[in-house]
Design brief:
Layout: E1 12-13, E2 20-21, E3 36-37, E4 53-62, E5 65-72, E6 78-82, H1 89-102
Antiparallel strand pairs: 1-2, 3-4, 4-5, 5-6
């Protein structure tokens, strides 16, 4: 039976904004711009062949904190991920608010 979550402690440079990110084994997106890459089928397994950029589409607050809806720009896959304490949620919330005002 295959694990549904595999902890991977990896550092990376964000392909979207160039921020150097120090991974803690649960890091799956850039804390500055909230973008990520579609690299996992199950969290941490690095088995996705897509490799597309994961755009933050929505945020919501749950009992256990914020979570971010990511959408792959290449294949369209959507997935919710937990926000981290160092994520720049305020900037994303402001951008989302501006978009909603335009519509």
């Amino acid at each position: 039976m295959e694990k549904k979550f595999q902890r991977n402690e990896e550092n990376f440079v964000c392909a979207r904004c160039g921020t150097r990110v120090t991974g803690d084994g649960y890091t799956n997106h850039c804390p500055a711009c909230l973008w990520g890459m579609h690299v996992d089928v199950n969290p941490g397994d690095r088995k996705a062949e897509c490799g597309g950029m994961m755009r933050p589409k929505d945020i919501e607050q749950k009992a256990r904190g914020w979570r971010i809806l990511h959408v792959c720009e290449k294949c369209g896959k959507e997935m919710w991920v937990r926000a981290k304490d160092n994520d720049n949620i305020e900037v994303f919330a402001k951008k989302l608010e501006d978009v909603l005002l335009i519509e």
